[in-house]
Amino acid sequence: MHPMLTIAVKAARRAGNLIHRAADNLDHLTVTKKSHSDYVSEVDRAAEQAIINTLLDAYPKHAILAEESGARGDSEYVWIIDPLDGTTNFLHGFQQYAVSIALQHNGVLTQAVIYDPTKNDLFTATRGSGAYINDRRLRVSKRIELADCLIGTGFPYTKFEYLDAYMNILRDMMQKTAGLRRPGSAALDLAYTAAGRYDGFFEIGLKPWDIAAGCLLITEAGGLVGDMQGNDTFLESGNLCAGNPKVFAQMLQVIAPHLTEGLKSSNS
């Protein structure tokens, strides 16, 4: 395992342990509402601090981009952190949430960790070295027809500016796939796509910390990732389509008729 990935795994497990312990005392947590349907708990903040401390202890000159505390530092190395992706699930005792950590070097994703503390599933990837779950190699699915595919998605939940376009895409995907799923953690959705549990995934209006690690997992597992037009601006726009190579192309065809000018150029 790459030394930087080893540190990221250590950080993710520390955060996961905090989250796992807190899951037994949900009624006693302090929760703040950031915006409509967007919450942060003391566990998010504690987990994020544990991650940042672990990373900066090892690499004090690296920069940080974290969901709760924002950006700090200036470096060619940037750690992109979501300490608890799926906070709403966590607060309701719905066990679909994860820790997500990625490393970007000169703008290129190079390391990724997604850790599911409820199942003790550890997804990891290093650029050029493949993707793994608990030391077992990951590959995207081999299905070639969209009609046979299970596709993950995420509903808009804070900004509804593109809701009509999304609902049109959702309607067509429902009719052209074997099924759609929306469990509520984009990080795990992307990890599941890398693992072949989903054949593809799409969502609008995500943030870099939601998707950075998962996108590297998918590409290292043989899949493709792009924005809603298949381009590489997904980290900036937050609009994402991913899947195995055959399914990715077919998903883009379903999405294309419903893209507004805003979605084509949006930084949601």
Attribute tags:
single chain; alpha+beta; 9 helices; 37% helix
Written description of the protein model:
This protein has 268 residues and is of the alpha+beta class. Helices cover 37% and strands 26% of the residues. The chain has helices at 3-22, 42-58, 87-91, 163-176, 186-194, 208-220, 234-237, 245-255, 261-265, and strands at residues 31-35, 38-41, 63-66, 70-72, 77-85, 98-105, 108-116, 121-126, 131-133, 136-137, 150-153, 179-181, 200-203, 224-226, 240-243. The strands form 3 sheets. An 8-stranded mixed sheet has the order 4-3-5-6-7-8-9-10, sandwiched between helices. Strands 12-11-13-15-14 form a 5-stranded mixed sheet, with helices on both faces. A two-stranded antiparallel sheet has the order 1-2. Strand 1 and strand 2 form a beta hairpin. The longest helix is centred in the N-terminal third of the chain and has 20 residues, at 3-22. The mean pLDDT is 94.
Q: Brief overview, please?
A:
With 268 residues, the chain is of the alpha+beta class.
Strand order of the largest sheet: 4-3-5-6-7-8-9-10
The number of distinct helices, counting runs of at least 4 residues, comes to: 9
β-strand percent reads: 25-35%
Write the H/E string, N to C: HEEHEEEHEEEEEEHEHEHEHEHH
| Major sheet characteristics | 8 strands, mixed
How much helix, percentage-wise, in residues? Answer: 25-40%
Q: Using the alpha-carbon principal axes, give the shape.
A: globular
Number of strands: 15
* Unreliable residue stretches: none
**In angstroms, what is the radius of gyration?**
17 Å
